[in-house]
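Box 3.1 — From sequence to structure: Enoyl-CoA hydratase/isomerase family protein
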Amino acid sequence: MPYETLRIERRNKGVAWVMIDNPPANAISERLMEELEKAADELEADRGVRVVVIASAHPKTFLAGADLKDMIQRGTQFAGNEAGIAEQSARMQRCFDRFATMPKPVIAAINGYALGGGCELALACDFRIMGGGKIGLTEVSLGLIPGAGGTQRLTRLVGRAKATELIFLARRLEPQEALELGLIHRITPPERLEEEAAAFAEQLSEGAVRAMGLAKRAIYAAEGLPEDGFGIEAASFAATFKTGEPAIGLAAFFQKKQPQFLR
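Predicted structure (token representation):
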């Protein structure tokens, strides 16, 4: 089926690449989420697809996170309606969770910046290979919190203490530090990212991917990612809009200034 914000490339040994191409900034939009979900449905149903790689057509950005202008407009639309805002957070959680629960190995080939929602999509993948840029959950710098599963997945990946530091300080990690923390699995020179991601994907594809899918389901259960954890995150994301801090953080972002939360 045709897509507007991504393309699917079926390559050697049953490896399918999902190339996100949503110019100008590769930001998360409702259209992109719809198409990611459709792509997940298509690739999960295709028995010829053994491994999925999520990558970017943008030269410097893996995924830019939420469209902030759209967020401001929606914030106005949902003013006083926390349930509506929480549903927008839950919407992103459900989208990214399609790859976390897909019974096939999923690799994030991170070619550049993966901040905020971009980091959250990468966290939903089984493996993260990074060729450049920075990665992190930076939402608190805007007066928000991660709302697409980031508070849950990062905590389970690196532990509560380090997740608290990374989220509270909105840390943007270089690849080496991200590797040392266990946030990513491998680092590669930028010019070799596609080659190395392809080689790793083909290595996985040569294995018992049906067994991997079953193991993935069991691992997901062991992680203990309950729906109430995601629900609390979504509700907390919505509650930030009552604090007044997103208005400060988002305005400063567009003015290219440092936000002044201390007044």
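Summary of the box: Residues 6-254 form a domain with the 2-enoyl-CoA Hydratase; Chain A, domain 1 fold (CATH 3.90.226.10).
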